[in-house]
């Protein structure tokens, strides 16, 4: 099923299209629309994952209400957003939120509880993660002795941001703001990871984004979703190798093994891969929220 763009008429507003999200500027506020697009290896894939945008939006909304941290969320009901007459509300419903406009802090605030992904590769190469010296002998997927805050610069294009040290972050945004963001990120991760673990999911790592409005630092973008986090089933956790996950790793694995060179236009995803990926996203939602995802 090809879903490169969400088809809805909001042509009267300036729009910025990201890899998977469309952002409409409404003046004082922003309209964030999570599409069913999926990206991997710096490419937006030609095949969408049905309901992915709604799953991620509804899961973020759950966290915005559950976490004890100020955030940008204003409205989740499209009928209450005062959108122009004729707007296709049905296509926007469930995947759209109205949020406060902020001055975005240009840093990805990553918190890691377990050694995986790019952190595992860096540890193998240097014995460190983002400049932080770690004990020798750690295995892939090992729990860190203590959580690691590993900031990254926000990439203009593609999936991959550049990891930086905390000192480099201080140089970019100032020590006071950097220290505040580190504290807020770790505290938010601890809250979210504790709840997720009670529901059977390990949050191995996650990234947060923050913005400043009226002098207040608030949480923005999406929160603790399979797109912004590494979710593992707790009952299958076993250090020493990569873990099964609830994120788009299933798609990455198929792309890696299908013969695609990662430099040319990516292939369409098979129906089986699309269906399985959709199932994993929905399973994560159901476990974390305690509700059953359903949409007409």
From TrEMBL:
Pathway where it operates: Purine metabolism; IMP biosynthesis via de novo pathway; 5-amino-1-(5-phospho-D-ribosyl)imidazole-4-carboxamide from 5-amino-1-(5-phospho-D-ribosyl)imidazole-4-carboxylate: step 1/2
Domain SAICAR synthetase/ADE2 N-terminal: 15-264
Keywords (A to Z) from UniProt: ATP-binding, Ligase, Nucleotide-binding, Purine biosynthesis
Keyword ATP-binding: yes
Superkingdom assignment: Bacteria
Catalytic activity: 5-amino-1-(5-phospho-D-ribosyl)imidazole-4-carboxylate + L-aspartate + ATP = (2S)-2-[5-amino-1-(5-phospho-beta-D-ribosyl)imidazole-4-carboxamido]succinate + ADP + phosphate + 2 H(+)
EC number annotated for this UniProt entry: 6.3.2.6
GO MF annotations in UniProt: ATP binding; phosphoribosylaminoimidazolesuccinocarboxamide synthase activity
GO biological process terms, semicolon-separated: 'de novo' IMP biosynthetic process
Pfam families xrefs: SAICAR_synt (PF01259)
Gene Ontology CC annotations of this record: cytoplasm
PROSITE patterns per UniProt: SAICAR_SYNTHETASE_1
Keyword Nucleotide-binding: yes
Gene3D superfamilies, alphabetized: ATP-grasp fold, B domain, Phosphorylase Kinase, domain 1
Family label: Belongs to the SAICAR synthetase family.
HAMAP family per the UniProt record, alphabetical: SAICAR_synth
Name of the featured protein: Phosphoribosylaminoimidazole-succinocarboxamide synthase
Organism per entry: Bythopirellula polymerisocia
Name of the gene encoding the protein in the UniProt record: purC
């Amino acid at each position: 099923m090809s879903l490169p763009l969400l088809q809805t008429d909001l042509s009267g507003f300036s729009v910025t299209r990201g890899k998977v999200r469309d952002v409409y500027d409404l003046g004082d506020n922003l309209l964030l629309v999570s599409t069913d697009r999926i990206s991997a290896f710096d490419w937006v894939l030609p095949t969408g994952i049905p309901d992915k945008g709604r799953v991620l939006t509804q899961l973020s909304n759950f966290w915005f209400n559950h976490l004890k941290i100020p955030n940008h969320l204003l409205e989740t009901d499209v009928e209450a957003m005062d959108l122009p007459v004729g707007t296709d509300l049905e296509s926007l419903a469930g995947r759209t939120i109205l949020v406060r406009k902020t001055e975005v802090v240009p840093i990805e605030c990553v918190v890691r509880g377990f050694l995986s992904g790019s952190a595992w590769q860096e540890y193998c190469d240097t014995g460190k993660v983002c400049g932080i010296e770690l004990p020798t002998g750690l295995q892939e997927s090992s729990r860190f002795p203590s959580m690691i805050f590993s900031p990254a610069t926000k990439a203009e294009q593609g999936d991959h941001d550049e990891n930086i040290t905390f000192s480099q972050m201080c140089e970019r945004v100032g020590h006071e703001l950097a220290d505040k963001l580190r504290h807020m990120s770790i505290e938010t991760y601890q809250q979210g990871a504790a709840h997720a673990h009670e529901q059977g999911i390990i949050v191995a790592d996650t990234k947060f984004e923050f913005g400043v409005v009226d002098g207040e630092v608030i949480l923005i973008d999406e929160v603790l979703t399979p797109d912004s986090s590494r979710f593992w089933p707790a009952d299958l956790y076993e250090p020493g190798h990569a873990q099964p996950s609830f994120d788009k790793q299933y798609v990455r694995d198929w792309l890696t093994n299908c013969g695609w060179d990662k430099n040319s236009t990516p292939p369409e995803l098979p129906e089986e891969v699309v269906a399985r990926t959709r199932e994993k996203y929905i399973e994560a939602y159901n476990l974390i929220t305690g509700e059953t995802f359903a949409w007409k």
